[in-house]
Amino acid sequence: MEGEAIIGICGYYVPKIDNNAMWLGWLAINDEYRKKGYATKAIEWLQKECSEKLHINTFRVYTARDNEPALALYKKLGYVQENTPHKIAIVLTKNGEAWGKEPVW
Predict the structure, then answer these.
(1) For residue 73, what pLDDT band results from cuts at 50, 70 and 90?
(2) Could you give the CA distance from residue 9 to residue 91 in angstroms, rounded to a whole number?
(3) What pLDDT was estimated at residue 97?
(4) Domain contains 3
(5) CATH number for the domain including 28?
(6) Is position 2 within any domain?
(7) 65-97 as b/e, with b when 16 or more CB fall inside 10 Å?
């Protein structure tokens, strides 16, 4: 929130098949608040919380290959693109082992 305004939403999940990793489930920042660092702050906060409270230090995200703003953000935060077989989406990982599996969805 900025003051009392809701500026966006983000969330994560820890799937049973990859319970050593946090997956960023969704991230959306309202248009008027973009390019102000809120997405970076949200992701960094989630990583810190998962690290401290869940003892998770591997972070993953699944996004469209052509989502250039998201890819730039994730790469800026240290995520590395994995060799995923999908034509329209990719997995990026920060820390830990490469995913190496197709997501179950």
Answers:
(1) very high
(2) 20
(3) 59
(4) no
(5) 3.40.630.30
(6) no
(7) eeeeebbebbeebebeeeebeeeeebbbbbeee
Domain presence at residue 81: yes
What CA–CA distance (Å, rounded) separates 99 from 81? 10
Q: Which two tokens stand for residue 36?
A: 């102000």
Q: What is the pLDDT of residues 21-41, one digit of tens each?
A: 888 988 999 999 999 999 999
* Orientation angle between helical segments 68-76 and 38-54, nearest 10 degrees: 50
Q: How many separate domains does the chain show?
A: 1
Domain that holds residue 23: 8-94
- Residue 1 falls inside a structural domain: no
For the beta sheet containing 58-64, the strands, ordered from the edge strand earlier in sequence to the opposite edge, are 8-13, 21-29, 58-64, 89-94, 80-81
Q: Is residue 99 over pLDDT 90?
A: no
